[in-house]
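Changelog note: in this version the structure field was regenerated for every chain. One regenerated record is shown below for reference.
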Amino acid sequence: MIRRPPRSTLSSSSAASDVYKRQVSTQSTGKQPETMTTKLRLVATATLLIALCASTEFQVHQLSEDRQVVLGEADECGDGTRTGEEECDDGNGEDGDGCSRGCVVEEGWQCVNGSEDTKDKCELVCGDSKRMGGEECDDGNDSKNDGCDDFCTVEPGSMCVGGSANEADTCTAIECGDGKRARAGADGVRGDEDKSEDCDDGNTDPGDGCTGGCQVEDGWECSGGSTNSADSCTVKCGDGLVIGDEGCDDGNLEDGDGCSSTCTIEDDWECAGGSEDSPSTCTAVCGDGKRLESEKCDDGNTDSEDGCSSSCEVEEGFTCHGGDANEQDVCDSITCGNGKRQPGEQCDDENVADGDGCSEDCEVESGWVCVDGNTGGKDSCSVDCGDGKRVGDEGCDDRNQDDGDGCSASCRVEDGWECKDGSETSRDTCDPVCGDGEVKGVEGCDDGNATSGDGCSDECIVESGWFCAEAGSDCEECSCGDGKRACDEACDDGNTASGDGCDDQCQVEAKWVCNGGTEQQADTCTECGNGERDSGEGCDDNNSENGDGCNEQCEVENGWTCKQASGETYDVCQDH
């Protein structure tokens, strides 16, 4: 930053340009020279322009409405050398840094040291009544001790306002109570200002939010202040400090807790204990017949021993109900068996008998469920089917509510089953009745009796060497060649001859396929590799070789696809 110097004149390098510059100056001053002189100058100017146009290109840079500079081809603006008609050249073609893109010194700046060998150094002119760039202030002079010093820096204890690129700053001493908040770091105020104000409400009176030292007081908020305007201070509601015109302050901004969001005591509440150092404590007015959030009951009075105490607590042996923000509570003594489920009771079925789900002490009995009871009505109790406890009228309880496992979804023993071991503490185990002619559960067979040695044992397990085709029917001994594929037979074609696909041990012979056999029907066997895909074959490629897509059992091999060849009966297989 430099103090304001006189603006330097433009350099010239030729007589012609001198003549042109005098012409520009004449236009700007408006003075009229003698007639002959004027004519000579016009002739000289015309001669210069003709010469410029004939010999080289040129640029015209307008400095103002009546001032311009013409740069020739050799005057390359922004190359860092001040030549020709350039007022400055700082090595770039940018505006706003003192030397414009047309190499003209910008207003409020001074550029020095530029020559044909060196670029200009440009700095703001301090004291020209134009606050620009890095200036903190500019009051139109380069004096010290007036708020803005000779380097356009705000002086300690002062603030400067109003300055702009077109206006000078007005600087005044920082004074608490003048209605102008001078906060450190604000525009026109030093960042390290010792007299920094947190507030300024236009006076130095304490107790209004802003102290005599212009600091915000505890429990207050001040806003709106600036270097041109005063602060407005209000009490800070919700900080837990009762200050100013607050009726209460409980440390929050919630409604419905006694102290409202605007720090006024709410209807039907009392607040006490608040001060400049501690929050208010608010409680609902007990005995007014309105049960609020903090009250356990409110029966419209402050008498004790009527169910709701003088502090609005429910008394032992009583229950209170019906109260809300508009209605008072009704309190009743707790009596088991009165048909009202009251606090402390798990149930109340309007009697004191055991064994019906709700005991004589109004507790839910094991294996039961009691529902619908409340302070106005009795409970309805029923057994809890599926809980693994057989109680009440349950025929069984196997700890689930599935049908088909012996104990139904309604805890009844299903036909053909028997359930045992269930009690109030243990679940039932259900097994099918063996010998009733119906195969159920884990039974492998049931031939209608519980006799062993007939194929189906007394535990309904298929005996070795036998097979049982249908429930309720007799079981048959395993016999190869009887036309019934059973037991460990891989096939049974109704004979014990070999060479027909199913050998004398009822095993499928190599290169044959047998299918269709059941415990009641014989197998049909076909030869694999005959070129015809018979029933049961996945493929038949007219051979019995493995590894070509269709193996020796006429099964499609993994990774292959087999399909009938066009016009043929056999398959063609391709790998994929």
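Spot check on this record: The first helix runs from residue 15 to 29. Residues 160 and 171 are 4 Å apart (CA to CA).
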